[in-house]
Design a protein that fits this description.
Shape of chain C: globular
Chains: A mainly alpha (188), B mainly alpha (442), C alpha/beta (330)
Strand content of chain A: under 5%
Bound molecules: sodium ion
Helix content of chain C: 40-55%
Distance between the termini of chain C: 54 Å
Strand order of the largest sheet of chain C: 7-6-8-5-9-11
Structural class of chain C: alpha/beta
Largest sheet of chain A: 2 strands, antiparallel
Number of domains of chain A: 1
Oligomer: heterotrimer
Strand order of the largest sheet of chain A: 1-2
Number of helices of chain A: 6
Amino acid sequence: MSEEDTSELQEDRFVPSLSESPYGAVLGSFSAAMSAVGTAGIGALMLLIVLDVIGRNFLDAPITGVSEIAARSVVAIVFLQVPAAILQLRLTRADFLVRRLQKSSPKTVAWLEALFCLAGAIVFALILWASWPKLLSAWQTAEFFGVQGVWTIPTWPFRGITILGCALAVLAALYRAREEIRSARSAA
Amino acid sequence: MTTLTVGFILIAVLIGLVLLGMQIAYALFGVAFLGIWIIRGNIDLSFRMLELTAYSGIADYLFATIPLFVLMGLLVSVSNVGRDTFEVAEELLRRMICGLGVATVAANTIFAAVTGVSIASAAVFTRVAVPEMKRHGYRPAFSAGTVAGSSVLGMLIPPSLLLIIYGVLAEVSIGGMFIAGIIPGLMLALGFVAMLIGITIAFPRFVLNDPDAVRERRMDRDFKPMPLRDLVLKLIPIVLLVVLVLGGLYTGFFTPTEAGGIGAFGALIVALSRRSLDRHKLWQVMKQTGVISVSILLLLVAASFYSRMLAIAGLPNAIAGLVTDSGFGPLGFLFFYAVIILLMGMILDSTSILLIMVPIAAPIAQGLGIDLMHFGIVTVIAVEIGLLTPPFGISVFTVHNTLNDPNVSVEQIFAATLPFIAVMLVVLVIVALIPATATVFL
Amino acid sequence: QQSLTVNIGSSHPEANIWVYAMKNTFQPEVNRILAENGNEYQVNWVENYAGTLYKFTDTREAVMDGIVDVGMVGTVWEGANMPLQNVTYFTPFATEDHRMIIEIFDDLSENLPELKNSWAENGMVHLSSLITDSYDIYATFPVASMADLQNRKLNAPGTSANWLRETGATPVDGALTTYYTNIQTGVTEGTLSFASGILPTRVYEVAPELTRVGIGSMYFGGIAANKDFFEGLPAPVQTAFREAARATSIAHGDYVGDLAARALDEMQAAGLTIHQLPDEEKAKWVNGLPNIIEPWLEQTGEAGKTVLKAYFSALRERGATPLRNWDEGL
Ligand code: NA
Ligand code: NA
């Protein structure tokens, strides 16, 4: 394993120190923890598929419900990772204009970035607002997916992850917005 | 104002926001939310559609393969399988004009048989091929462009995420799509090779910093050839992975959707057995997988919400009506369709384009008597060109991010991929005109 | 004249067996009836077929939330929220007559409080029943006896996996869209499915041996209207919807019947061989199944018992003889 390979894999720097920014530090640690759960989920998904294939081909014992479980998990993985992705600035965008402007007027760019972050906060707030009633009703009606008598899994933990992910995403986007506004002010 | 006009205005707003640099997922979500609210005059409906899309828009086994394909790519990369493949290709093609460029294409072609996403190829070969090409006198930007350009092979040669997604959307056999992709994929690879050689002879300054030094190295008789044993050893892991993924697929051991999981596991075994992975590094790779996957997957959720808004605006029906009324023949339609995809490819990611276009276009194509597998390959080639076209070309971005070299700008890489786009356009036209290129083995 | 906008939609395309009659009977019938009754009202249909607005997992919520006003609702995918409607999937080998299932569920959904309320609780009004034709085995091998099923892998998604319990066959997940590839590549060796679904997916090309088993026709779901929307309609329009729904039920039964018959002809012409599972083997299968209705009864409680009893007495009233009395001992 060569040196240049490791350098690219270092991505842990998005959590600021507690003294530097208590809000950012707490938010960052929480996001990192959620993201770690999501990451473990990807590994679990791989193992689930491998076990299903082996069970089906060699033991006549496939794991029932892999496709539904995988389907639900991939949504959970997204919402577990989103806050960290926002803090790490990893969401896909076409930034050619921003990069152009960066040299000539960094202040404009910072304000623009702050605006985008606010848009992100609004978007996740909307998803949060739209989704929480379904979490309540899923909890109350003990909603599940799967097949009665074969296997069933409650849906509320999955709906809960969406809510949690969105809530943290809103905070993360607001934190980023504050950072951008600060840098806009200091650029003045 | 008709809902259709609203629809077109909202598309324009989206393009504007994307060009300004807003995160594409935010722009898609926001514009679609407003769109549904305006068109149906009911904000509650926006909320309900948003909830449905967030909860089940990507809740599909198919999409669960995306992180697994990414994981496979990264594992193959840390275990240096990509580097070894490249080194063997480099060794064998030493005497060729533009040998390192051709080696990049060759290694990408083989690598494409284990990975299903182009960004994996782009990331791997940026680290493997670009430094090597730079060291031997190739222009850095051209090197980066070659990696970005040849990375598109990953999605045409099976297994391929785009072919899977097309197969699901058009309801055609995914196994069949994989077979249909083989010849066009090889045509593309050969086209790239011919183009690289041609361009090096015609415009050496476009390719090389120091043409003379490169020629000297090519003609050098004193180099020590790689021992055959090393060569074979370097090839074994990639061959094993190809056999595992393609062999397993075609003997019915697992489904195309499961190939991502099995391939990732195989790559993990390879990485562990080569001792290139300790616990800490494995965790880093997993985390990286999560970060890359989420940016793709969130985009997919957003794109699915956006395409539902377009459906409410009646846009798919309107476009279908337009095509039917225009009296296009099959070829005219294919041409028109490819142009639309190429335009969309400038601003949207490949999966979103498929999600938006295939449900509208596949029934029309079928009605015109176009074979849906052939249609799928045309679609995927056209979509893949979008990986390389500015302003939003994800392969170019991946190479640029991975390279992280202040002397190589995104614009330079975009410029260097132009010859690759030209080859892809030629292959696109050939495949469109000759359906047998896709369907001969079906 | 008053014009009403009605959003109608489905997760499946217009040619699909569950959508066909919505588009080709329900809509024109409503138009016709309204026109005949003095043209006082006119419906402006906004069509959202083929899953442009939502996926098959969301058919209930789409109608319930008013994303469409009228839609195809697959209760088969709603085991958690509408379990009562799935009674047929837990009581296989009841009847192969799909028209009978339509008739029974049109009746029960309107007149059995448990079923009617279940639709109402989910914010919907049931208009017309949707079904599948009878399930058989499409495979790479014929099934002459239960021994032939030993160690075979068959696509049997969701609740239908239950039907293979104790048969020695392994159920493998899948959907109509994946059967072809699964069988072609050898992931599975066949599937439990129905003729009208198999024909368009060309599964018979890779699974040329059909064994008629007669697992039975299943209640798939209903065409339903959003409750608030429906109650807000003027009375004459409501009546027109109801009348059109009756015509739709008949048209749906005919369409599935014709398609199934045509499917068998076309598939045979394309090389499909048809076998019949002998009655005594079929009896072994049915009686060998564990009590698969048990977990369903536990989940649905008293309401479930009522629905099961009503369903089975309706079957017997109409002259059907279910091969197993799943309602025994209630
Ligand atoms: Na590939
Ligand atoms: Na592009």
